[in-house]
Amino acid sequence: MKRILLYSLLILSIAGIWYACKKADDEPIYPTAPISRLYISLSDLESSETAQFRNVMVIDPADSTVGTDELPVADSYDTDPKRGMGITFDPTIKRVFQVSRNDSTVRLFTVSEAGALTASTSFKDTINLREGRAIAYHRASDQLIVTDNALNASSIHIFSNPLRLTGQRKARKRLLLKSQPYGIALSEKTDSSMMVSMQGDKREILQYDLEAISGLPDSTVADTLKPKASIGIATATDLRGISYSSALDVLVIADIGVVDQSSPDGSIYIIENALSKFATGGTITPDRVISGSNANLMDPIDVAIDDRDDKEHYIYVTDRYGRRISRFLLSANGNTAPNATRSVGQMTPEFIYLDARPRPSLTENSQ
Question: Per residue in 152-161, pLDDT tens?
Fold first, then answer.
């Protein structure tokens, strides 16, 4: 009888461990308290004559306000990049990834429960990765995706199993493009897709099938993989960073306007029902546009969306020329002012990533 009881307990323990592992694999990790943590990558370059730059900032909590209209003061970290560009975070593996433009390196950082960054590992591709820009991590396939907008070598690099990579490493797959890619956004729906904004006069966003990309053999260097859809914005000047909310089916895009110009000529486009508009294709009119003197967008370069059910929906924007972070309501439209901002001093903000996770009870109730 004791033996039977021990066997039963053993089976139940194994089943419990299997269920916990499966749950961890299938679902994002939810914190005991809500998280709204904004990671900011800065592109300033150190020299022997400058002070040591701290090229990642973290605003936590980003959904709060100090005084009447300021975001909280950011914590800064010395990540030693040569011009930091794309940045992303995944709560399952508890890693921040940051790509640098000058030394073709992807750096990884561990993140504590309090949001503090600690240097971990790095790898580089000095042969093929020329002008790294946006970076995204696809959890289901364990792939890290980097856009490269080098003028004569524009491409998308796909690195597999990034936690295991060190030293000199080439991407497992590269998609060669005729135009310069910039931002990346991933859809988390079952028909998962990758959306890529195209810099310059293309004024379009391409949509690729992630399953088709995952099915390509390793060592693929392809210029024949066509996007499954695209949409264009005829009134745009120069599209840059993008962000997509699977929960809301909303796509947000930054239009930098005329680069390095002090006048507020930048815009933010909000596209509702984005997947259906990709399915239709062609040139579209954004549902809302944030622009004008009150918005004060000089060089908006990247965006992030807070889409939590229990919180106000926000858009976060990095303004490279204005050297600030701005927060707008997702419902904002026209010549409207941000509801909060934060200057980054003399530093130059580029890409951002928002880690916004609700409380578990609210997540379970919404499923």
Answer: 899 999 999 9
